[in-house]
Amino acid sequence: MKEMVLVVLVMLCFFRCSDRSESSLANDYVENLLERMTLKEKIGQMNQYSAGSNLTGPSGSEDGRYEKFKNGEVGSVLNLVGAEETKKLQKLVVENSRLGIPLIFSYDVIHGYKTIFPLPLAESASWDLDLMEKSARIAALEATASGIQWTFAPMVDVSRDARWGRVMEGFGEDPYLVSLIARAKIKGLQGSDLSGVSTMAACVKHFAGYGLAESGKDYNSVNIGKNLLHNVLLPPFRASAQSKVATFMNAFNAIDGVPSTANEYLLRDLLFEKWGYEGVVVSDWNSIGELVNHGVAKDKNQASVLAINAGSHIDMEADAYIQNLEQLVENGTVKEERIDDAVRRILQLKFNLGLFEDPYKYSDVEREKEIVGSTEFRGVAREVATKSIVLLKNNNHLLPLNGERKIGIIGPLAKDKDSPIGNWRAQGESNSAVSLYEGISNAYGDSVELSYAKGCDLSIGPNNFFEEVQIETEDRSGFAEAIQVAQSSEVVLMVLGEPAFMSGEARSRSEIGLPGLQLDLLKVVHEVNKNIVLLLMNGRPLTIPWAAENIPAILETWHLGSEAGNAIADVLSGKVNPSGKLPISFPRSVGQLPIYYNKLNTGRPKSDMVFYSHHMDVENSSQYPFGYGLSYTTFVYDNLKVESGNDGVTVSIEVTNSGDRRGEEIVQLYIRDVVATISRPVLELKGFKKMMIETGETKKVEFQLSKEDFSFYNMDGDLVFEPGEFVFSVGTSSEKLLTQRIEVN
Ligand code: BGC
């Protein structure tokens, strides 16, 4: 084996020393290696296993996996973390397998590795692309220092249904915003050079349609047409491919009966042919095996044929490729060029990551000690968290808290140090967040009198990634204490919402109100003290019609990560003026779902007659729309100008801070294509600018729109421009807009 390592190094040196471009160097290297691989070794590169930290110990050897690693039958690993552990396994593979091809270590680093940032959905509310790039950069710094080179993020599934537990993991309902955030995240993770020791391969998932699972039920079927596919679901994936994201992941779901893992149209026709994507496609966990459950394959053998022919290159945890592909190639069912294509891409990725040069460079114990969980990252986590908070309501300027001496803090999440860490927490430790109570104590110290009551429990029993969360629905014995606290306080902070594991994978809900006894608790407190600030902590939009009507101040604080309590206190105290805007609509009731701002007009939009598209028992509008979010100050929009010129259309507007404190505003531009060959949305976000505006200051904001902004995808997935009338709308949310209509040719 040592000989082989030497050959590889000499080859690398030969290629590097010659005067050729990096990419032809990589090609030569990969081709040379590929030529020397047996079929079995090639298929090994397409096999991915999950590992606990004891993989190289007894449990690994028990199921024979240990041997497979030594034989070069595994190409990548997920869920093994730590510089020491990854080095150990890497060494085993490099030193024992015939060709010594290094493994890639992968992991779900979704919103931070050790330092935990707000949930992706929460962070999206900041609309701050630089900051989101920065948090991804920190996640990559930490994860790579722990031996990881590949994360299964970002999730770019557009989602419109808050029942789906994984809305927490995405960037909301708007394809334009999701695309921009996807680009920022990819840049933060991958940087400009994948071979850098602190950059890592990103993976956009889940390709495609996963976010539109029927009735918001995870893994459920998706039945959509081509318009929705091309104009809503695919743009973030296309933008990611253009940003050279290293990998794609299949979705679990079927679209119109075709499971994504076996979807030739999505993978071969669109991704590879039309978009020219040259990276790697990994299956989702056992999604090749699940083709049998979908009923499109009778066994894993047939499932392997479907998946490889469609273009799924790596089999995550199904054991399908490793057990079947060799024989399938030998008997002519699968062409060897399919295997070569997959392996070429995988080796190329390994080359780009610099693993052939030094398979151990990511596994540096000293670097891990120095970087992972470094306190300097906490400042960024706090900044991102403050910017993710959305002020939903603030009657009579109840917020910021100003001079109140007696603050009551009530609710099952008030002292919870775990829920703000959220689901998909990577190496974020349980109970490691700054709780709301701690945040308030840190901010106010002895200057206020704090009293606290839990009021009720939220979850009883398990609250972890693997088990169903159980919610308390019986025990009201804590209500009396809550009433007492409320009676003796000038203002009450009610901290209510969902525990960490109530959103995330397999955490769909059919009702999305405040779980358990929390609404009842809120009502009894409200009876004795109306001065309530409701602090919502949750991983999805909730239906809160009663609170929206009766509670004077409401802040959406999501699951904000390690610095949650401090960030919320920054906003409550007025140290930070809230500026977040919702990246997803909050429905009034579950029956409205799916609800989203960029809807089609229908043939029967709102009218005075009964025969229009509506529910009889709820308004058509959402409770809080996309793009909505208040500030402690007020912004006045004026002087909208839309001008068409040779370079496209220029839209300008003046925004004045008419309140009494400086604040950041996110100015949003939407368009509507009035007449087209297919029905177009009533509003489509096409630009936004986030800026600080001083008290009394007026800022002029300008947007430049080009032909592409007025185009849409036809049924073949081609971008088309149809001249005609367009409506331009600019404002502070998707429902508060100034508009103008002009002809665009
Ligand atoms: C999820 C993926 C994730 C994978 C590996 C699956 O259950 O759907 O998003 O990356 O597990 O953990």
Spatial arrangement of strands, main beta sheet: 11-18-17-16-12-13
> Helical percent range?
25-40%
Number of strands: 27
Largest sheet: 6 strands, mixed
Bound compounds, please? beta-D-glucopyranose
The overall average pLDDT, rounded, is 95
Distance between the termini: 66 Å
% residues in beta strands: 15-25%
- Over all CA atoms, what is the radius of gyration? 27 Å
Task: List the total number of helices.
Answer: 23
- Structural class based on helices, strands and sheet pairing: alpha/beta
In short:
With 745 residues, this protein is α/β, with parallel strands linked by helices. Helix content is 32%, strand content 19%.
Characterise the protein shown here.
By secondary structure, the protein is an alpha/beta fold. It contains 23 helices and 27 strands. The strands form eight sheets. The protein has a six-stranded mixed sheet, with helices on both faces. A five-stranded parallel sheet has the order 4-3-2-1-10. Strand 26 and strand 27 form a beta hairpin. It binds beta-D-glucopyranose. Beta-D-glucopyranose is lined by residues 78, 108, 152, 205, 284-285, 505. Residues 78, 108, 152, 205, 284-285, 505 line the site of beta-D-glucopyranose.
